[in-house]
Amino acid sequence: MRIAVAGGTGLAGRHVVAELTAAGHEPVVLARSAGVDLTTGAGLDAALAGADAVIDTVNLSTMSRTKAVAFFESVTRNLLAAEERAGVGHHIALSIVGIERVGHGYYQGKIAQERAVAAGPVPWTVLRATQFHEFAEQMLDLMPGPFAPIPPMRVQPVAVREVARHLVALAAGAPQGTAPELAGPREESLTGMVRALLPVRGERRLVLPFRLPGRAGRAMASGALLPTAPGPRGTQTFTEWLGERSASGKG
Questions:
Q1: For residues 85-99, b (16+ Cβ closer than 10 Å) or e, as one string?
Q2: Distance of alpha carbon 60 from alpha carbon 47, whole angstroms
Q3: 3-state secondary structure of 106
Q4: DSSP letters along 21-44, please?
Q5: Contacts of 225 (CB under 8 A, 6+ apart)
């Protein structure tokens, strides 16, 4: 199958491209570096010629509801319109477990994305997954300095390559609508993940747990981002991911 990957140069997208190649599919990267601007739609028609499916892994680093909603709505609208013109038969979107239970600005953008996909003209599947193991690292990178203020979130992290493998399997099958949620093998605390990651990175920083204000902070601390129904579970634990990261020389 010829399968396009929106955001194919990002963290999840790179793994999806690798899994597609390993499974014998033909991946097509949809990104600016490949001549495609997803925010305007430029280059999409040519890139989607002959595509059987599209896997959308695009991401945006923002806490602004306005920016997140505008970005995900415009990208999804452009993708679906081009897919309809190209005769693409399956649109697969990667989303996040629990977003409707947390009133965070970024999550409002993901909700808008899901709604646009469901209302669009292309048969679809939405896969909600929990946070990647890399989430702890991303939080640390956002907060340089001797202190690391980290919200006490309950999470069930999953290996990004396992998410990618699942997306590829979904793309090769029939559209499902909302697929069962994908999560990691066990629950972790974000502060505990960060504390375990610091020595692997060779850093000595003081982790300062702090609860985000309002409904979002309470929801994250109480487990709103955990799966609530049966579904597929990854196998790699966060501890195993740390060992793999250390062995790779990134520590």
A1: ebebebbbbbbbbbb
A2: 22
A3: helix
A4: HHTT-EEEEESGGGT-BTTTTBTH
A5: 96, 97, 98, 101, 102, 130, 131, 153, 154, 155, 156, 219
Pair of tokens at residue 136: 């702890």
Q: How many angstroms separate the CA atoms of 77 and 117, rounded? A: 8
| 38-77: pLDDT as tens digits | 999 999 999 999 999 999 999 998 889 999 999 999 999 9
Residue 236 vs residues 114, 148, 157, 162: alpha-carbon distances, Å = 27, 26, 9, 8
Report how far residue 130's alpha carbon sits from residue 227's, in angstroms, rounded to the nearest whole number.
Answer: 8
pLDDT digits (tens, 9 = 90+) for 101-114: 987 889 999 999 99
Of 30, 113, 24, 122, the C-alpha closest to 76 is 113
Structure tokens at 147: 């202190």
CA 157 vs CA 76, 131, 140, 142: distances in Å: 26, 5, 16, 19
Closest CA to 124 of 176, 186, 80: 176
Residue in the structure block whose two tokens are 């190649």: 21
Domains of the chain: 2-247 (3.40.50.720)
Helix and strand totals (H; E) in the chain: 9, 10
